[in-house]
Design a protein that fits this description.
Helix 1 (16-27) crosses helix 11 and helix 4 (107-124) crosses helix 6 (180-191). The strands form 2 sheets. The chain has a 7-stranded parallel beta sheet with strand order 8-7-6-9-10-11-12, sandwiched between helices. A 5-stranded parallel beta sheet has the order 2-1-3-4-5. The protein is an alpha/beta fold and 340 residues long. It has 2 domains: 4-106 and 319-331, Rossmann fold, CATH 3.40.50.720; 109-140 and 165-306, Rossmann fold (3-Layer(aba) Sandwich), CATH 3.40.50.720. The protein contains 11 helices and 12 strands.
Length: 340
């Protein structure tokens, strides 16, 4: 079998070695073996490198634009695979060249969305405190253990306050940013019958709002109306935090702030001060201003749920699994996932 040259487009060189390992791990699930792998690490608005000119397949991980001029340079290109939504790809120009374009979900993005819903469920259902009490063997003296049957049991044997156990149904979720991850979160939140608000620099077309069941709000009204506020935006390296003292003051006293995006998007000192005085109901954080986090900053707070930047962690083979299977299917003239 001849060698297949594959170009992977990503932003920056910092993750190239990891992507190489992930891609080759995924290839182990397919019959594709003769691969010449190259990376294009240009920025989102930058020109494509020379690797575009002789690649047979192109995998786009980033928000790189693949316009008609770039497609004209890709003389040997026959297959484009986008991980995540296919923004910035000139589908019509590809079709004119008989270049097949497919889009598959970014598994890491899906993992972050899962993590976001996990945070909300754990807070609403007091999962961690309940678990800790059971492990510690907490049991009031006046509760007699029973051998359970369908009709005999000791429901809520610790007599936790019923009113504190919330449901996600009918709660309002506010999404700051509405890229791939926020869209996965919205899909999941729809399944829990939540009311979903979003804010971003430019409003979505009406048909997309209907598809994802979301309602546009400006930042101020989103903060005031949401029971859960979840960050899914991007921020320049030297940008001001999206959530600071002024934004926290607009949130409900019972609201929960969730950050699975980047630590620099929240003024951490302002958040901790707000949590200590009970200004909001709590915070769920997977990312921090400094990583590893200085734990002493959060010590003593009972209204936080923290994880060590693991929201996007997935098995090595998972991110490129569908890509590898699609490449194998394309080379063998079989049906593909996510053809556009």
């Amino acid at each position: 079998m001849s060698i297949v040259k594959i170009l992977i487009a990503t932003l920056g060189r910092s993750h190239v070695e990891r992507y190489q390992s992930e891609f080759h791990a995924a290839l182990g699930l397919s019959s594709v073996r003769n691969v010449d792998l190259e990376f294009d690490t240009g920025d989102a608005g930058g020109a494509w490198g020379r690797g575009l000119e002789d690649c047979a397949a192109l995998i786009i991980l980033s928000d790189r634009s693949l316009d008609a001029d770039a497609i004209a340079r890709a003389r040997r290109l026959t297959f484009v695979q986008k991980i995540g939504a296919a923004h910035g790809i000139d589908i019509e120009a590809c079709r004119k060249r008989s270049i097949v374009v497919a889009s598959v979900p970014d598994m890491n993005h899906m993992a972050v969305a899962d993590h976001t819903l996990m945070f909300m469920l754990c807070i609403a259902r007091h999962t961690l405190t309940g678990h800790a009490d059971v492990i510690r063997g907490v049991c009031p003296a006046d509760v007699t253990p029973v051998l359970t049957t369908q009709s005999r049991r000791n429901s809520n044997w610790l007599d936790h306050a019923r009113d504190s156990y919330g449901l996600l149904a009918d709660q309002t979720l506010g999404l700051i940013g509405f890229g791939d991850i926020a869209r996965h979160v919205a899909r999941r939140a729809q399944g829990f019958a939540m009311n979903i608000l979003y804010t971003k620099r430019s409003r979505l077309p009406p048909e997309l709002e209907r598809e994802y069941g979301v309602v546009y709000h400006d930042m101020g009204s989103l903060l005031r109306e949401s029971d859960y506020v979840s960050l899914h935006a991007t921020l320049p390296e030297d940008g001001r935090p999206i959530i600071g003292a002024k934004e926290l003051e607009k949130m409900k006293a019972t609201s929960i702030l969730i950050n699975t995006a980047r630590g620099n998007q929240v003024d951490q000192s302002a958040l901790i001060a707000c949590l200590r005085r009970g200004g909001i109901g709590g915070a769920c954080l997977d990312v921090f201003e400094t990583e590893p986090v200085r734990v002493n900053e959060f010590r003593g707070l009972s209204n936080v749920l923290l994880s060590p930047h693991t929201a996007g962690v997935t098995p090595w083979r998972l991110r490129f699994r569908d890509v590898a299977m699609n490449i194998e299917a394309f080379l063998n003239n079989r049906s593909l996932k996510g053809v556009l």
